[in-house]
Amino acid sequence: MIHHANPHANVAQVLDNLDAIRVLDPHGMLDLTERFPDQCRDALQISRDFLAAQGAPARPSSIIITGLGGSAIGGDLVRALVEIGGDVPVIVNRDYRLPGFAGPNTLVIASSYSGNTEETVSAYEHARDLGCPRICITSGGELARHAARDGVPCCIVPGGRPPRASTGYLFIPTLAVVAASVDLGAQCGLNAVDASLGHLDELAAEWRRENPVSDNPAKELAVALHGRIPIFYGAQGWTSVLALRWKGQFNENAKVHAFANALPEQNHNEILGWTRASQQSSIWSVVYLRDPQETEDQPRIARRIAVLQAVIASSAEQHEVWAAGDSLMERLLGTLYYGDFVSVYAALLAGVDPTDIAGIDLLKGEMANLNGNGR
Ligand code: PA5
Questions:
Q1: What pLDDT is recorded for position 5?
Q2: Catalytic site residue 366?
Q3: How many whole angstroms from 296 Cα to the centroid of ligand 1?
Q4: Cα 238-240-244 angle, rounded to 5 deg
Q5: What is the pLDDT of residue 9?
Q6: Global pTM?
Q7: Which residue has the least CA distance to atom 7 on ligand 1?
Q8: Is there a contact between 47 and 155 (Cβ–Cβ < 8 Å)?
C-alpha cells in the first residue's frame, strides 16, 4: 500500500469501542455486513429452489438486467462475469425504458429489492409491452404484484434490509438465472459462489468489529480515508464494477462524495484532470482496486497503473487494494465485501448513521406524489 502518514489516526479509537459502535450504528448496518456470508448461503438456496421450480429460461439472444442503485450493482457484476465466460450480450439498464433492441428474444431481469422503484416497474412494463420474457427478483412490492398478475416467474428474497446490504440476495439469483440460460463456464457460475463462502467467512472474521484497528485492514483503510474524498480506480471488467460499488457505498453509508473510473478509459481523459490537481486536491485519496491476476492477464493495465501512480504521486494520497483469494469468484466477492466493511467503518468514524438514506427517500417520496410513471 502506498500512503502517507494519516493525520486522523486519533479518531480511530471509536472503531475499537464496541459501545460507541452500537450508538453510532442504531439500525445495525455493521451487523448486516458481518452476516453477509450467511446471506449468500441463504441466497444460494433460494436461487436453487427458484430454478428447480421454474426450470431454466429459454436461451435468449440478449439479456437486459434492469434496476437502480443497490439493485443494479449485482447486475453489473453478472454482466462483467458474462463478459469473461459467456456468449450472450448482457447490458444493465438504469432507466424507465428499455433500449430499442429489446424484443421477444431478450430476457429481461427486473431487479428491485423493495419492488417499488418506479424506474424499474416502468421498465418491467415496457418489457411486457415489447413481448420480452421476464423474470423478477424482489422482496415484494409492486414488482411482485405485477409479476403475479402476468404469471411471470418471481424470485422472492427476504425483505426488511437496505438494498445495498442485500447484494447477496440480488446478485446470486441474477447470476443463477443468467447461468441457467447462458453457458458461463465453471469459474463464473453458482458453484463458484458456493466454493467462495468459506473465504467470505474468513474475511468476516478478519474485518469484524472485535478486531482492533491495529489488526483489522478494513478499519485501517477507513481511518486512512477519514475526512477525505476517495476516488476509486478499477480496470475495465469486474474491478471497475467494484470501483462503482465502493463509490456507492461511500456515498450511501458514509455520506461523502466519492468518484470512480476505470482504466484504460481514465488514461484518455481524466488523467489530465490531475495536471492542476495539486491546487485542488488537498483532501483527495485515490484507491486502486487491483487483481493479482492482472499482471498476468492484463500486463499493459498493470503498466498503465504504474505510470498513473507516478502522475498522481505529488497530488494525492494513494492506496492499493489487492483482491485476495484463489479463484476469480473469491477475489470478486472478497473485494466487494471489503468495500462494504470499509464504508461502514468510514460512516462510524464520520459519526453518521450508515443506514440512513433520507435524501433518497425524500426524492422517491416527491416522485410518488406525481401522477404517471414517467415512461
Ligand atoms: O441503496 C439504496 O437504498 C438505493 O440505491 C436503492 O437500491 C435504489 O434506490 C433502488 O431501490 P430498490 O433497490 O428498492 O429497487
A1: 47
A2: no
A3: 36
A4: 115
A5: 53
A6: 0.95
A7: 70
A8: yes
Establish whether 268 is a catalytic residue. Answer: yes
Q: Which of 119, 252, 294, 330 is catalytic?
A: 252
Q: Is the CB of 118 under 6 A from ligand 1?
A: no
Q: Is 162 in the pocket of ligand 1 (CB under 6 A)?
A: yes
How far is CA 344 from each of CA 161, 231, 253, rounded to the nearest angstrom? 15, 17, 6
163 lines ligand 1 (CB under 6 A): yes
* Interior/surface letters 45-76, b for 16+ CB within 10 angstroms, e for the rest: ebbeebbeeeeebeebebbbbbbbbbbbbbbb
- Angle formed by the axes of helices 238-254 and 328-350, to 10°? 20
Residues of the chain short of pLDDT 70, as ranges, are 1-10, 371-375
Position 3 scores a pLDDT of: 47
- Amino acid at site 106: T
Pick the closest to residue 219 from 235, 229, 208 (CA basis).
208
DSSP string covering 16-53, please? G-HHHHHHH-TT-HHHHHHTHHHHHHHHHHHHHHHHHH
Per-state percent for the chain, helix, strand, coil, to nearest 5 = 55, 15, 30
Would you say the CB of residue 252 lies under 6 angstroms from ligand 1?
yes
Q: Degrees (nearest 5) of the Cα angle 110, 332, 70?
A: 35
Place of cell 500512503: 3
Helix axes 190-207, 328-350, angle to 10 degrees: 40
> Letter for the amino acid at 282?
S
* Gap from CA of 163 to ligand 1 centroid (Å): 5
Q: Name which residue sits closest to atom 14 of ligand 1, judged by CA.
A: 114
Ligand 1 closest atom vs CA 360: 9
pLDDT value of residue 138: 98
Residue 10's pLDDT is 65
For residue 9, the tally of other CB atoms under 10 A from its CB is: 12
Cβ proximity of 129 and 110 under 8 Å: no
Residue that the C-alpha cell 409479476 belongs to? 147
Q: Indicate if 252 belongs to the active site.
A: yes
